[in-house]
TrEMBL record:
Pfam families: Exo_endo_phos2 (PF22669), SKICH (PF17751). InterPro entries: Endo/exonu/phosph_ase_sf, IP5, IPPc, SKICH. GO terms for cellular component: endoplasmic reticulum; plasma membrane; ruffle. This is Inositol polyphosphate-related phosphatase domain-containing protein. It comes from the Eukaryota. GO terms for biological process: camera-type eye development; negative regulation of glycogen biosynthetic process; negative regulation of insulin receptor signaling pathway; negative regulation of phosphatidylinositol 3-kinase/protein kinase B signal transduction; phosphatidylinositol dephosphorylation; skeletal muscle fiber development. Residues 285-305 are annotated as: Disordered. It comes from Anabas testudineus (Climbing perch). One of its GO terms (molecular function) is phosphatidylinositol-3,4,5-trisphosphate 5-phosphatase activity.
Length: 469
């Protein structure tokens, strides 16, 4: 492992290649130990850091999963999703998808500009634990195409306790081998071009006594503990683990703390500190990985894909000690994704026509620019700028109902004035594909004028939601 806690960005290396595109990925893994969210998550998401990330992937473990609470979360968004979504949406990030299995929750957010290029989204889960009972351990995953590059994120919660290192390895391998997707070219996790596996992997620091552990941590000599870290040692023995990379553990072990403090466990159990919360990544190799591979950057050389490489560089791997609601501290991993886009044109072009206001019916145009499995159940939503997800529309219209359109055919649809917001504001139109479950095209933002009816009736913003529902 390297002794540097930050890795250099590849932006400087590749800016001379106009085909290359740089995106920033911000990942969080946190065992929240059934706690409610903190007052804010601004520092956790590095919202004050520029340039802002392009993608956020947040994996939580032990979200409150009591049966009645879990059932209520199926009807109403859970408090953690609500916190992250409400924090990110005003900053231009849209929730692409989420998946939950009991206490495991995985959230994916993207800048609005990227939405038409995130396609073929699928989620799934795998139960482990006691015969998979009640989903107490296992993994939830999301896979998608990002500008044509197939990426998979796997949020895991593996077996606990010091003596179960081998069981953790078995569970990890079981997840990788059995979790599958309904996509012919990438049915399994390791078929994907890039895989991020992260979560409460529960690996411990073996052999060392509590006093040595704490003195090494207090003096910042974390490297003294690496040789006894179970995951580092298991990687030396297990070929499938050797396919995964991990940054240096140059931060305090994130487990186990007294809640609302920076003090390691003072209870009667006095659990030993450990790096239970980890972020690993894997690039699909063309050939088995060799010992000479560069430690700091990985390049995908998937068969037949040499013209479209993707480079993954870790820029940060750390924890945030400021959060105390759980007995774990959250872990943050930031990456640069250097990739050449397979495409840079949306599948659908959509735009408003003329002036929009609730005083008259409006018009919109859309054009299918690339063949896909379109449906007469597809729809075009009207979204207020700062919308939270594809379902967060103000109103919508169905696409042309009688027949599917030809490629590049210009289609015009009328929008009833009664579904246009009375007070107006900044909006975008989005084409949603029912089959692909994603927004395939977004218009430029446009202004809807305040209607004369709103002026005549003296409406104020507080009234508008009630009138629109």
């Amino acid at each position: 492992m390297s002794s540097d806690d930050e890795r250099p960005s590849l932006n400087v290396i590749l800016t001379s290649n106009s085909c290359q595109h740089s995106d920033r990925l911000h990942m969080v893994t946190w065992n929240v130990a059934t706690a409610e969210p903190p007052e804010d998550v601004i520092s956790l998401l590095h919202l004050d850091v520029q340039p802002a990330p392009d993608l956020y992937v947040i994996g939580l473990q032990e979200v409150n999963a009591a049966p009645m609470r879990y059932l209520s979360d199926l009807l109403v968004e859970d408090s953690w999703s609500h916190m992250f979504t409400n924090t990110l949406a005003p900053r231009g990030f849209v929730k692409v998808t989420s998946v939950r299995m009991q206490g495991l929750l995985l959230l994916l957010y993207a800048k609005q500009v990227h939405l038409p290029y995130i396609r073929n989204i699928q989620t799934t889960y795998t139960r482990t634990g006691i015969f998979g009972y009640w989903g107490n351990k296992g993994a939830v995953s999301v896979r998608f195409s990002f500008y044509g590059h197939i990426i998979c994120f796997v949020n895991c919660h593996l077996a606990a306790h010091m003596n179960y290192a081998l069981q953790r390895v078995d569970e990890f391998e079981y997840i990788l081998e059995t979790q599958d997707f309904d996509i012919s070219d990438t049915p399994h996790i390791r078929d994907h071009k890039v895989v991020f596996c992260f979560g409460d992997l529960n690996f411990r620091i073996a052999d060392h006594g509590l006093h040595f552990l704490r003195s090494s941590i207090n003096s910042g000599r974390y490297n003294l503990l690496w040789t006894k870290d179970q995951l580092i040692n298991m990687k030396k023995k297990e070929p499938f683990l050797q396919e995964f990379e991990e940054g240096p553990l140059n931060f305090k072990p994130t487990y186990k703390f007294d809640r609302n403090s920076d003090t390691y466990d003072t209870s009667g159990k006095k659990r030993k500190p450990a790096w239970t919360d980890r972020v690993l990544w894997r690039i699909k190799p063309k050939n088995p990985p060799s010992a000479e591979e560069d430690e700091k950057a990985s390049v995908s050389t998937d068969d037949g894909q040499e013209d479209y490489p993707i480079l993954v560089t870790q820029d940060k791997y750390t924890s945030d000690m400021s959060y105390g609601v759980s007995d774990h501290k959250p872990v943050i991993a930031a990456f640069s994704l250097e990739l050449r886009k397979y495409f840079d044109t949306p599948m659908v072009h959509v735009s408003p026509v003329g002036v929009w206001s609730a005083d008259q019916d409006a018009l919109l145009n859309y054009t299918i620019q690339e063949d896909f499995m379109s449906s007469t159940w597809d729809w075009i939503g009207l979204y207020k700028v700062g919308f939270k997800s594809a379902a967060d529309y103000e109103s919508f219209v169905w696409v042309r109902e009688k027949e599917l359109p030809e490629i590049n055919e210009l289609i015009q649809i009328s929008v009833d004035k009664n579904v246009i917001p009375l007070l107006g504001g900044q909006y975008v139109l989005g084409y949603y594909s029912t089959n692909l479950q994603s927004l395939l095209g977004l218009s430029e933002s446009f202004n809807i004028l305040e209607s004369t009816r709103a002026v005549m009736e003296g409406l104020v913003p507080e009234n508008i939601n009630g009138l629109n529902k």
